[in-house]
Design a protein that fits this description.
By secondary structure, this protein is an all-alpha fold. 77% of the residues lie in helices and 0% in strands. It is extended.
């Protein structure tokens, strides 16, 4: 039983000799998630829901069965990822910690709606929206999503500061347009909360046009808010773009350092190549990037064998 649990954990990790099997499993689960998302969207069309009711139900039951099995196996095998000595108490603590981890909660949310449908009477439209949450399972398998989440974590304080400033500007814009327009358009700017809709649309530069100022002063104020919002909206976007680029740079640098360390003796052994391949997959780098890092390392080592002044080989 212990060997089976270890094997299951290694397959989910997708490292070493289990890399191909782990990748195949990831591709299968990602495909199943996307099929589920498309099916849930199509099921919202009434005539399709009636015509293919049986097919949608079978797909839902099969998918939930697979996702439930995956969830149980991950919860069961998560103890083999830890270096702690095996004991019932330690394993329970590890499983409880994993149960409350973000990825495990996303896996649980993916199967809960269907389980709720069996035991509790709920609105089907509400259930369909909850089932769409399965798309967040892609964060486990997509390296790009993991990079984006890491960018959010790294820039959380800066993003909070930017959103705080935007909230202040939102309140100022709502109060200003309320004072200017509420006498002329009491149905649209009759209160500050009502004016917040216009302020939000203007600050995000969406501009639906359903609520607009009509007085000259109101239009002047709206233009000023629009100019301010063009810079405000760009702040979070710039922070995320910069952080995303920095995450990619860090991963490439980490792989380059690993290549440099592995080639201390001037060549790569089979074990070192396997280690670098596992690291490449874990970091989400392409084979072209990995080969380029190895080629550059070989080139640098070759150039260092000769003196750049006299051209003689250095011992």
């Amino acid at each position: 039983m212990h060997r089976l649990r270890t094997y299951t954990a290694r397959v989910f990790e997708g490292n070493g000799k289990y890399r191909r099997l782990g990748r195949a499993l990831d591709v299968f689960l990602m495909s199943l998630i996307m099929i589920n998302v498309v099916a849930i969207v199509l099921e919202s069309v009434s005539h399709l829901a009636k015509q293919y009711k049986h097919e949608f139900l079978m797909l839902e039951l099969i998918s939930v069965g697979i996702f439930t099995l995956e969830y149980i196996l991950r919860l069961w095998s998560c103890v083999d990822k830890s270096a702690h000595k095996e004991s019932p108490l330690t394993n329970s603590k590890i499983r409880i910690k994993y149960f409350f981890s973000p990825l495990a909660l996303i896996d649980l949310i993916a199967i809960l709606p269907t389980l709720l449908m069996v035991f509790v009477s709920v609105d089907l439209r509400f259930l369909r929206v909850l089932r769409l949450m399965r798309i967040f399972k892609l964060t486990r398998y997509s390296r790009a999503m993991q990079l984006l989440l890491q960018s959010f974590r790294d820039e959380s304080s800066s993003l909070l500061a930017a959103f705080f400033i935007m909230a202040v500007v939102l309140i100022i814009a709502s109060c200003g347009i309320y004072l200017i327009e509420h006498d002329v358009q009491p149905d649209k700017f009759g209160s500050i909360p009502s004016a917040m809709w216009w302020a939000m649309v203007t600050l995000t530069t969406v501009g639906y046009g359903d609520v607009v100022p009509v007085t000259p002063l109101g239009r002047l104020f709206g233009g000023a808010i629009t100019l301010v919002s063009m810079g405000m909206v760009a702040i979070p976007t710039g922070l995320l773009a910069s952080s995303f680029s920095e995450q990619l740079r860090k991963r490439r640098l980490l792989f380059t350092d690993a290549v440099h360390e592995a080639m201390e003796d001037g060549h790569l052994s089979a074990i070192q190549e396997e280690h670098l391949e596992n690291l490449r997959y874990k970091l989400g780098l392409s084979k072209q990037e990995a080969n380029k890092a190895i080629h550059n390392e070989l080139k640098n080592r070759h150039s260092n064998l000769y003196c750049r002044h006299c051209g003689k080989r250095q011992d």
